[in-house]
Amino acid sequence: MEALLSLAFNNIASKDTQKIRKGLRQIEGMLAQICLSGTKSNSSTPAHRRNTSAINLGEQSRQPPKKLGALAEDLAFREFFRLQEGFEWNVAMRVVDCLERLLGMHSDGQNDLLILSALSNLQGLLLLHPPSRTIFGREVYMNLLLDLLDPYNCPAIQSAALLVLVTALLETPQNTRTFESMDGLLTVTTLFKEEETTQQVKLKLLEFLYFYLMPEAPVPPVSAPNTAVGSNLAGAFERRSSTISGDEGGGPPRKNVRSQEEKQHLLGRYLSNVDALVQDLQETAFPSVAC
Questions:
Q1: Between the CA atoms of 92, 97, 98 and 102, what dihedral angle is there, to the nearest 10 degrees?
Q2: 3-state DSSP helix/strand/coil percent for the chain, to nearest 5?
Q3: Is residue 289, in this structure, part of any structural domain at all?
Q4: Which residue from 71, 101, 157, 239 puts its CA 20 to 30 A from 21's CA?
């Protein structure tokens, strides 16, 4: 896995769009291998697989996804998780850096497709390795997601960025506090009010606001949410958060929890019908999450 990651990292660090595309495909293929059930027949030798730059995603897409409980004993997932705990092999950091470079390049249709591919990979990475979400507690990375919501970006990029933003805030209250301090609510509501914003994006924005207003709950200190991984991996959700984010200290996530009423008041600065949104949430009786 280190060899594949090293090759992918070299490609996505390039200024050549063809190499970037190749590197993002390699990461996508790796994630597909982890998430999808393997076939019974495997005619490829290890040497052949090393020489193949991308996985046959057409075949992968026909395979059923693995059950979450099965990931605990999956050797590929455990190896992936282990590598993500250190800075050198953390894929989310590299993809975020790639996104930053793509935003600085000439904007065209091909570049937009690369941004979409990077966002898709990033969402998967944050779901598979929740400790990587802590990188968005840093303003420079949160600002990158907010830049992707600018009106000059195409609707597909705006929608994909919102999905990544939700994943970055999920069960990570400290990231939500960074989002708020970076005027994230102003960015989201401004885009929502823009006449040029498409209905599809406005629907995604409305879904995000519902998510934001959901009650926050303290994150258990050593639990791997919804993955049923072993205790050694579960402990990494707390132990490694400072390693990934570069933060040497700081209190536990529960200290960053904000009440629904407080968030309602913050959002009310930019939106007039927040009370109606909260009422809808209460009527649907969503479970608490640590957003």
A1: 140
A2: 65, 0, 35
A3: no
A4: 71
* Residue 212: inside a domain: yes
Residue 290 lies in a domain: no
What are the beta bridge partners of residue 36? 65
CA distances (Å), 41 to each of 37, 44, 45, 57, in order? 12, 9, 12, 16
* 291 within some domain: no
pLDDT value at residue 85: 86
CB atoms within 10 A of CB 207: 13
**Residue 238 domain boundaries:** 2-284
Which residues of the chain are under the pLDDT cut of 70?
37-70, 72, 218-255, 285-291
Q: Under a CB-based contact definition with an 8 Å cutoff, are residues 116 and 35 in contact? A: no
Residue 130 CA to residue 86 CA, distance in Å, equals 14
Please report, to the nearest 10 degrees, the dihedral formed by the alpha carbons of residues 192, 194, 197, 202 taken in order: 20
The rounded distance, in Å, linking the Cα atoms of 2 and 108 is 33
Q: Which two tokens stand for residue 108?
A: 């065209």
Residue with tokens 């660090």: 13
pTM summary value: 0.78
Number of domains in the chain: 1
